[in-house]
Design brief:
heterodimer, A: mainly alpha, ABC transporter involved in vitamin B12 uptake, BtuC, globular, B: mainly alpha, 12 helices
Chain lengths: ~350, ~280
């Protein structure tokens, strides 16, 4: 993986603005009501307590995913398996909820979360293991594992874990002891906000002030130098991919617990969104929440604009794509330049 | 059986040759997956709305050229990270296809190609193309490794300064390599849609990624690429047959190409490591 160049935040802003403009233009042109669309895009997430609560919850979930991607980046690794790790985490938590429906709440939530984290971290660690043992590029291996997870998840939700009373491809709804309390009903806001806060502060402190964190950053800056300096770069590769997978899984588990049910596609997009947010924030944990809230604003605003202008198409793919295309750019001109 | 394997290898070989050209120019094209989707979609849309087969192939190539230029603009002109911009195209292509389909046809699902349009072509044209892949791969290797153009491509990857000294723009050569590879992938998508006689969202199902794995597994040689491509299409055919006779949920078999790619990649890496340790 070629190392990412030093980050310029005006580029991040430009990439977000470009994504915003593209989404806006598309909706405006295709819905025939540009002013209304623009109004809902900008203000949609703030118009009701419910919309605002949902914005915060989605920010919290995406913060977890963004930090997941960042920690791998900072250690010089590229975890492209976020989609699969989030799905595996959510499904593992859902499986605990399905097979032990009666255990008391104080045990139920930690048990489900632990199962989720374990699933994600094992998948992440496996890519790290392949890399350290035989030099298999973690970027390709994590992607291939994630891509195989999609169909597996579909089969689990459609056969093994399927709710017999539902026509959806879904597991049964969670029993109450597995649901996170709604902090601001009717919005989805839950204690995931607190998880995100802890993870953000924790990873900031870890990278900045601990010896291990320093070693991770050194590996990320220059792997060979770190290795010659006696740092165990191999074990860092496994550890950071494992933590990255676990945090993606936490985001997937959050999507399960605030939504209340594992439905086909319930974690979809978390992997790509996490990568996009990490890139916007230059992989700095302290900036991830800011990137996450701008990005969620963009996504939720787009959704609000689409709902109110009767434009029947999800634009989240276009938003992700625009961010990916431009977020690492170093200049915004088509003039010929050096590579 | 052999015919079927060779036919389903066509998209893989085309995309892998394109990928090889970009890899040699030092700009490995990650967006093959997205370009396969765009080629398949464009070709099916053109045929579905009454266009002819040559028009469909032209339109598919045009979509590849556009995506190749977009990627080159982001990477070469704006200095964006090639890999991440390529992922952007992979996300953009299916999303754009859905949007256009929604606009033109009023839905974003499967686009059928009228059977009579493809009847003659699938009977005569596709078998010819199927077997043309073997000489094509050889020719591509000759061009890459033996011609002046190929030398420029390879120098753009290994020593761009050398090209610049001779007054050749390495940025231009890299742009060319990206455009060629995206176009090859788009054409491979068009042939995929012809064979299935439809565009189905997600139909590329990882072929672009597997093409990248194939380049690596085939040691960047044309015969290696051919063998690896036939191996993956054998797996595809087997999984298709198993679907018919076993009780394994058919969705699960969609994971098989990815898993096979991972296993093959790992085994090759283990083999290389053992050879190095000896």
């Amino acid at each position: 993986m070629m190392p990412l160049k030093r980050k310029s935040y005006s580029v991040s802003f430009t990439a977000l603005a470009a994504a915003f403009l593209l989404a806006l233009l598309t909706i405006a042109i295709l819905s025939g009501n540009p002013w209304k669309a623009m109004g809902y895009m900008l203000a949609g997430p703030f118009l009701s307590p419910m919309a605002l609560g949902n914005l915060l919850e989605s920010t919290a979930r995406l913060t977890l995913a963004g930090i997941a991607a960042s920690l791998a980046f900072r250690a010089g690794l590229f975890n492209l398996g976020g989609e699969g790790q989030a799905l595996a985490g959510g499904l593992a938590a859902a499986a605990v909820a399905l097979y032990f429906p009666e255990i008391p709440r104080v045990l139920a939530l930690p048990a489900a979360l632990a199962a989720g984290l374990l699933a994600g971290s094992l998948i992440g660690a496996f890519s790290g293991f392949l890399r350290v043992m035989w030099g298999v590029d973690e970027l390709i291996s994590s992607f291939l594992i994630a891509a195989s997870m999609g169909p597996v998840g579909h089969v689990l939700l459609n056969n093994v874990m399927k709710d017999p009373e539902s026509y959806l491809i879904a597991a049964p709804p969670l029993t109450d002891n597995y649901r996170l309390a709604a902090l601001w009903p009717p919005s989805r806001l839950t204690a995931v906000l607190l998880w995100a806060l802890i993870v953000t502060v924790g990873s900031f402190l870890f990278l900045k002030f601990t010896r291990r964190g320093y070693e991770w950053r050194l590996r990320g800056a220059n792997e060979r130098f770190a290795r010659y300096g006696g740092i165990k770069t191999g074990s860092i590769a496994i550890a950071s991919l494992s933590v990255s997978g676990a945090l993606y899984a936490a985001a997937g588990t959050a999507a399960l617990m605030d939504g209340g049910q594992a439905v086909q596609g319930f974690t979809a997009g978390l992997g790509w969104d996490g990568l996009a947010i990490a890139l916007i924030a230059g992989s700095r944990p302290e900036l991830i929440p800011l990137a996450a809230i701008s990005y969620s604003w963009l996504l939720q605003g787009t959704r609000a604009a689409m709902m109110h202008t009767g434009f029947p198409f999800a634009l989240s793919g276009m938003v992700q794509a625009t961010v990916f295309l431009f977020v690492t750019a170093r200049r915004f001109s088509l003039k010929r330049g050096r590579i | 059986m052999i015919e079927a394997i060779a036919a389903s290898a066509v998209p893989l070989i085309l995309a892998a040759i394109g990928g090889l050209i970009s890899e040699q120019a030092g700009v490995l094209n990650i967006s093959l997956e997205g370009c396969i989707t765009s080629g398949a979609f464009t070709a099916a849309l053109v045929l579905n709305t009454g266009g002819s087969i040559p028009l469909a192939l032209t339109a598919a190539s045009a979509s590849g050229i556009l995506f190749g230029l977009l990627l080159a603009a982001a990477h070469i002109r704006m200095g964006a990270n090639l890999f991440i911009a390529g992922l952007g195209i992979n996300l953009l292509s299916p999303s754009l296809a859905g949007l256009i389909s929604n606009r033109v046809l009023g839905h974003k699902g499967t686009i059928r190609i009228p059977a009579d349009m493809l009847h003659g072509f699938n009977r005569i044209g596709l078998p010819i193309i199927t077997w043309l892949m073997i000489p094509l791969a050889g020719t591509a290797a000759l061009i890459i490794y033996r011609s002046r153009f190929g030398r420029r491509i390879r120098s753009a990857g290994s020593s761009p300064a050398f090209l610049e000294e001779r007054g050749i723009s390495s940025a231009g050569v890299k742009t060319m390599a990206l455009v060629i590879s995206s176009t090859a992938a788009a054409l491979s998508g068009a042939f995929l849609a012809f064979r299935i006689e439809a565009f189905v969202p997600g139909m590329s199902s990882g072929r672009g990624w597997i093409a990248l794995v194939i380049i690596w597994l085939g040691f960047r040689r044309y015969y290696g690429i051919l063998i690896a491509a036939y191996f993956f299409s054998l797996i595809e055919i087997i999984s298709g047959r198993v679907q018919g006779i076993s009780s394994i949920p058919s969705t699960l078999l969609l994971a098989l190409p990815y898993t096979a790619a991972l296993v093959a990649l790992t085994l090759a890496a283990v083999g290389r490591k053992m050879k190095l340790d000896k």
